[in-house]
């Protein structure tokens, strides 16, 4: 049987010398060179694990200065994840309590073997590593959520209740955390937008996994309305179907696009004026000029042509002034 060559720091909290010797023998069968520290009572154990860190703690439930539930309560939850209980058969109710509080595992002294003990130690260490990774992942998610510069919130799909909101959400909407947690998604929408929202929300209700984005109108606590681009991811939190939402304020962008569209329309109006209204009197003037060549301007028909020419010129002048006014208005905008 190949032994484990990893370095393990193991604290054995056991007052029975025979049990201690037996545990050391079992450990040496599976681990090449474990570092084993022994404490015979709760007081000395507490001093040891407060001074140094251990990979695993083997804890007897019946010590001279602490026993049973009192021992567990005084032991400290921060040490439970690395603790394996050494229990008697009659301690089953107590071991269940300990496991519910976060103790890694328990072993009955009467059934101890090197394989079972080693397996429990490795499981305890790996479980703690996985928990640490999960906690780190949750911390990263929490930071991404709460420190995100864009407003974000989590809501309950069934009740539409806000479950979590980040700091940017508080600043953007003007509500406190307590106020948000007492509100639903309907409370941040203008009344005339609620019907459209309910219609859109029905589409999301039929999906369990979905990422969707759209633009909606929201309302701040002070009554001010603004436009947001909503990105919603459907997630499951504690067995509940929830929505993870990012709400980006796009009011400025939409206003900018509206301004561009209005300017484009004015440019089209100016282009139409140039191509139609200006060219009409100009074409008339050109036609009159060609006719003047064949008429005597002092004759009655010549005088009429001359009057028409002047009218066309005045009409052209008026059209040009209108174009200048529109251009000035465009520049002012």
UniProtKB/TrEMBL annotation:
Domain Response regulatory: 9-124
4-aspartylphosphate found at: 60
Matches recorded under InterPro entries: CheY-like_superfamily, PAS, PAS-like_dom_sf, Sig_transdc_resp-reg_receiver
Organism in which the protein naturally occurs: Flavobacterium macacae
Keyword Zinc assigned: no
SUPFAM superfamilies per UniProt: CheY-like, PYP-like sensor domain (PAS domain)
PROSITE patterns noted in UniProt: RESPONSE_REGULATORY
Pfam families: PAS_9, Response_reg
Keyword Magnesium attached: no
Source lineage: Bacteria, Pseudomonadati, Bacteroidota, Flavobacteriia, Flavobacteriales
Matches recorded under Gene3D superfamilies: 3.40.50.2300, PAS domain
Keywords: Phosphoprotein
Protein name: PAS domain S-box protein
GO term, biological process aspect, one: phosphorelay signal transduction system
């Amino acid at each position: 049987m190949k032994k484990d060559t990893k370095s393990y720091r193991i604290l054995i909290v056991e007052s029975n010398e025979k049990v201690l010797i037996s545990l050391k023998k079992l450990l040496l069968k599976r681990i090449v060179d474990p570092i084993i520290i022994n404490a015979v009572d709760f007081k000395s154990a507490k001093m040891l694990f407060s001074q140094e860190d251990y990979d695993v703690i083997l804890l007897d439930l019946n010590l001279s200065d602490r026993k049973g539930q009192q021992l567990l309560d005084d032991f400290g939850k921060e040490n439970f994840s690395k603790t394996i209980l050494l229990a008697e058969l009659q301690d089953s109710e107590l071991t269940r309590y300990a496991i519910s509080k976060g103790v890694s595992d328990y072993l009955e002294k009467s059934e101890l073997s090197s394989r079972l003990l080693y397996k429990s130690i490795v499981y305890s260490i790996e479980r703690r590593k996985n928990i640490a990774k999960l906690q780190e992942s949750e911390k990263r998610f929490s930071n991404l959520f709460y420190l995100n510069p864009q407003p974000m919130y989590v809501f309950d799909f069934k009740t539409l209740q806000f479950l979590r909101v980040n700091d940017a959400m508080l600043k953007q909407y003007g509500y406190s955390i307590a106020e948000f947690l007492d509100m639903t998604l309907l409370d941040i929408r203008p009344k005339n937008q609620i019907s459209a929202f309910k219609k859109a929300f029905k589409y999301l209700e039929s999906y369990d996994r979905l990422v969707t984005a759209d633009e909606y109108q929201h309302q701040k606590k002070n009554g001010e309305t603004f436009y947001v681009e909503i990105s919603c991811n459907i997630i499951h939190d504690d067995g509940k179907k929830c929505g993870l939402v990012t709400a980006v304020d796009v009011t400025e962008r939409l206003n900018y696009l509206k301004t561009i569209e209005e300017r484009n329309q004015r440019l089209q109006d100016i282009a139409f004026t140039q191509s139609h209204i200006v060219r009409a009197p100009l074409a008339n003037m050109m036609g009159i000029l060609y006719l003047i060549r064949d008429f005597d301007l002092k004759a009655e028909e010549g005088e009429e042509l001359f009057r028409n020419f002047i009218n066309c010129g005045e009409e052209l002048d008026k059209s040009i002034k209108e174009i200048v006014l529109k251009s000035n208005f465009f520049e002012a905008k």
